Amino acid sequence: EHLANQIAAGEVIERPASVVKELLENSLDAGATRIEIEIEGGGIRLIRVIDNGEGMDEDDVLLCLERHGTSKIREDRDLAAIATLGFRGEALPSIGSVSHMTITSRPAGADLGTEAVVAYGKLVKIHAIGAAQGTRFEVAHLFGNTPARRKFLRTVRTEQAHIEEVVKNYALGSPETTIVLRVDGREILHLDRTLSLQQRLARLMPAAVPLLGVGDPDAGTPPPRVFGYLALPEATLPAAARLRLFVNGRAVRDRMMTHAVIEGLRGFLMKGRNPAGMIHLIVAAAEVDVNVHPAKHEVRFRHSRDIHLLISEAVARAMGHYQQ
Ligand code: ADP
Ligand code: MG
């Protein structure tokens, strides 16, 4: 069991940013409207994620430490239509197997919360404790027991940059959640839930303003639906500016979607330049397979060509309006 967790950790938990990603997804799945992320030493020394989501009682806390202890798949057929971000029940046992992990959680309505301490895969303590509603994860000494993996990590700065990337992706994927990021005690990102998606992107990519509005942001329109904001093709952007893609709120990498954006911009984007900004795609859960890779960056569409056309046409239309 412990070995299985460590093996899974090798697949799912590559680096500190993978921990942040899994914890953020869980907080979002728990319906949090506010998430604070704190990291120290590039996330190797400490990662702390605090949310105001639904919380867990003692049984939930014990369950979440078990492999496949997910609360998110209730029947087999759910696998075909996965709506939540996480669904494998592998993340927490994996993280716990390669770190010192402390979970503190309290569901609404309970007087006391629960605190559990796991050290390299072993539950060393679980007890009742006063706690705010929601959940708090602390992950310390990441890969302390797997020196090979630890050695594989880059500098603190690089790991920190990866974490910032992940946090920015989720900040854009879930604009209805306040997201705060503190690095070594310094607040470097604070995106309030009152900001619009456009305002969020403008904060993260100030050089890209004014942004080109793409598609139909009206949540009432039935899927498939595409919306987003792109930097104008002539904008001068820092080298790090990139195109962020989301499918049903989940950050993904997808060649087809990127290609569709480039095609929509065709004639305007100078050769050799990459598009920047963000594109959200909302599709029916049954139209997309997110179960391609444990790290879940990749997706597979049932009607890939239709999606390509939807995106490229929306981008082309936006460019057409802008030109006039
Ligand atoms: P998965 O997300 O695939 O279900 P995880 O290992 O990431 O698997 O989490 C296991 C379970 O722990 C979740 O299904 C959920 O019930 C619970 N959980 C984890 N994080 C939180 C959180 N921040 N708030 C509430 N419940 C949580
Ligand atoms: Mg999860």
Automatic annotation (TrEMBL):
One of its GO terms (biological process) is mismatch repair. GO terms for cellular component: mismatch repair complex. Residues 201-320 form the DNA mismatch repair protein S5 domain. Keywords: DNA damage, DNA repair. One of its GO terms (molecular function) is ATP binding. The keyword DNA repair applies. This protein is involved in the repair of mismatches in DNA. It is required for dam-dependent methyl-directed DNA mismatch repair. May act as a 'molecular matchmaker', a protein that promotes the formation of a stable complex between two or more DNA-binding proteins in an ATP-dependent manner without itself being part of a final effector complex. Belongs to the DNA mismatch repair MutL/HexB family. This is DNA mismatch repair protein MutL. The lineage of its organism: Bacteria, Pseudomonadati, Thermodesulfobacteriota, Desulfobulbia, Desulfobulbales. The gene is mutL. The chain holds residues 9 to 332 of 633 of the full protein.
